[in-house]
Write the structure tokens for this entry.
Amino acid sequence: MTRNQPMTADTQWVRRVNRDAVFKLLIERGPISRTALARLTHLTPATVFSIADELVQQDLAQEHSIGHSIGGRRPMLFKFNPTAYAAIGVNIRSSQVTGVVAYLDGSICLTATRTYRVDSTIQVLSLTNEVIGELIASAPVPPDRLAGIGLAVPGLVDVERGQVIESVNWGWKDLPLRNLLVEKFSLPVCIDEDDNALAIGEGLFGAGRGTSNIVCIKVGRGLGAGIIIGGTLLRGADNTAGEIEHILVAPEGPQCYCGNYGCLTRMASTSAIISQAIRQLKQGAASVLLEMAHGDLDQITVGMIGEAASAGDALATQVIEQAGRYLGIGIAALVSFLNPDMVILGGGVIRAGTPILEPIRRIVRLRTLTTAGQRVQIVPAGLGTEAPAIGAAALVMIQQGLLPSNLLKLS
Ligand SMILES: [Zn+2]
């Protein structure tokens, strides 16, 4: 084919696959020479040289140093240049809109946050716009180096159409969020469900980096899982895979708001943990929690319970361990179904560390007799509360070709 002939869809596809292969190796194995890239990808030197040149032109790769010669001229080594571009990631949460500007390696260069109390569609949307506006105005990259905006939203999301089908927190129904933001900011926009964004963030840049099979669970006021198996984000038919809140973990347990009994969320969400602690305190149990909350039971947070448990408080330890056992039952089922390398746990209660992690690990090992349960690593999240925002930013980086699409298959 001569240079002037138009590319067919086939050749564009092949070019994209080849570029992904070279780009991924550059990220994972760089600094690396063009010759080594050709050898490892089994592509022709001409193809690899042309892709490497394109990556250098885009500033995604840069010359690093002269390598060692194995005879002949010493090769030039190239490395990934993660700070060449950045993207905005926003996580819309139940009381806060958190935004980051992240570089291509997931590192954060800027944050912006708005908190809110009133449940109002307009307010949450306007706060989201404020956060994005602030980040665009202060982003430490030129406007043409800002890849776009990724959003992590709780609720049911139509990823292809960019719509929030339903988000009960603010009464959003069929909200064309992507179009609204594209019109306002004239940047590419991707949206996804927040648990998926959490898994993308942790899988690419956090605790799951380098593994292809992870289950990422956020233990908050609700519970949700983002699942990556074989390097592919598991969405299911309706993008609801990972909705684990109402799986049964305690057949004789109390009634859940869904009408069933003993659901995971009823036994191990942060609200369940707090209610359990308050119930025992009202029955007269002694605990340092009373002192921490200055005698006001309504002020007790899951952070306080975790802190008290870490310090050896008997009531807090018992409450946290019980939640850990129920989480362990739910996670054991996921481990049996999915055989992940790693289960990554996020949320305030997980910061308690050993008091919650130990019962989870013990129950998972007890209830999964296969190799899957014995070898799976159960670890705290690595990126902190910004993980979904970073994951959302990564969505738009991948969509815009600033990260290779074979790092993580999104559908
Ligand atoms: Zn339920």
Observations:
- The chain has a mean pLDDT of 92.
- The pocket of zinc ion is lined by residues 246, 256, 258, 260, 263, 265-266 (CB under 6 Å).
- The radius of gyration is 24 Å.
- The chain has three domains: 9-80, 86-203+387-407, 208-382.
